[in-house]
Amino acid sequence: MDFGLSAEQEAFRQEVRAFATARLAPHYRADDLAGSLRPSLAGELGAMGLTGLRAPERFGGQDADAVTTGLVAEEVSRADFNACYLVLNSALVTDILLAGATEEQLAGWLPPIASGEHVPALCLTEPGHGSDAAHLQLRAEPDGDGWRLFGEKTSISLGMYAHVGAVFARTGGEGARGVSAFMVDLSDPDPDLARSPLDDHGSRAIGRASLYFDGVRVGRDQLVGGEGEGFVSVMRGFDYSRAVIGLMCLGIASAALDDAFAYAREREAFGQPIGRFQGLAFPLVECATQLRAARHLCYEALALKDAGEDPAVPANMAKWWAPKLAADIVHQSLLTFGHAAWSTDNPQGQRLRDVIGLEIGDGTAQIAKLVVARHLLGRAYAP
């Protein structure tokens, strides 16, 4: 498979790297210490076209392919891992809308997401239903020509900032076919909606939250696709977004590894650069080798998506491997600095805290392996 970038893609990658280095990287630590993303961030990303990557041009988007979306995720996360959640959420919610929304709905929802005016959230996980999302319990009870939502969503990335949420609720019987998707306005104060921030080990700036729905009203014009089609739409989105998440993790790992190699050239011990010692150099070489292999796996999945083929196997392989590998690489990079990395002045500690979160979020390793096992073995022979 050819993973060569077009001249246009390479030019855009360089443009995004320059932007991320100048505008995002300086805020990475400060936003973590503040525990919040700066209010101007979504608009800055939107002005660069990075929150409208997957949206069609007629709605203010870039109409970018999946590979280009992966390139952006990798470059943004190299500079500011947490800023990349805005890129990721916007791309995933956009794809879900494109799969099921009407033209009129798209015209209302996509332009403000593409511009960065509206921060979107994916509201799927519940306290008792994370991996088992097909059996979620948040209820959509009929109310006139619409519904009222009752229940809780939790572990919602950007939940404290989101202006709009793709909320998955049970409109029918048990199982996946009873789940529908709604676009819910979260921007206006609503006495029937409450948010509660979560106190996290890492990615403290992204406003991960629980959302409580106590009769929030949604109309038929907020239903995405038909009743009972919500679970299918989000699963299709995950099939490629998991490869984007893989590149998001590998982007921060690349930054950590670059810093480690630079330090190995500069730091001297026993009268020579520490890179001269095999015990230090060889683990970094192993990290670089595996990082390159994982990148190829992620881009294979995205290239399959662009070709109209099923990306599920490489995307889910990437989802369980890339976050774990990235955590291992950042850890090894931290150890390369020795005592110097045990200070918060060094970014390696924050990188490690942040990247571990995506070993859990958007599908655990076990769920990703289950998907792959069912493809490779067949459902009758797999767990």
Question: What structural keywords apply?
Answer:
globular, 4-stranded antiparallel beta sheet, Butyryl-CoA Dehydrogenase, subunit A, domain 2, 11 helices, single chain, alpha+beta, Butyryl-Coa Dehydrogenase, subunit A, domain 1, 3 domains, Butyryl-CoA Dehydrogenase, subunit A, domain 3, 383 residues
Spatially, the strands of the biggest sheet line up as: 1-4-5-8
Q: How many distinct folded domains?
A: 3
Helix-strand string: HHHHHHEEEEEEEEHEEHHHH
Helical percent range?
A: 40-55%
**Name of the level-1 CATH class of the largest domain:** Mainly Alpha
CATH superfamily of the largest domain: Butyryl-CoA Dehydrogenase, subunit A, domain 3
- Note the overall shape: globular
CATH architecture of the largest domain: Up-down Bundle
Radius of gyration of CA atoms, rounded to a whole number = 21 Å
Low-confidence stretches: none
Quote the distance from N terminus to C terminus.
Answer: 30 Å
**What can be said about the biggest beta sheet?**
4 strands, mixed
CATH fold name of the largest domain, please? Butyryl-CoA Dehydrogenase, subunit A, domain 3
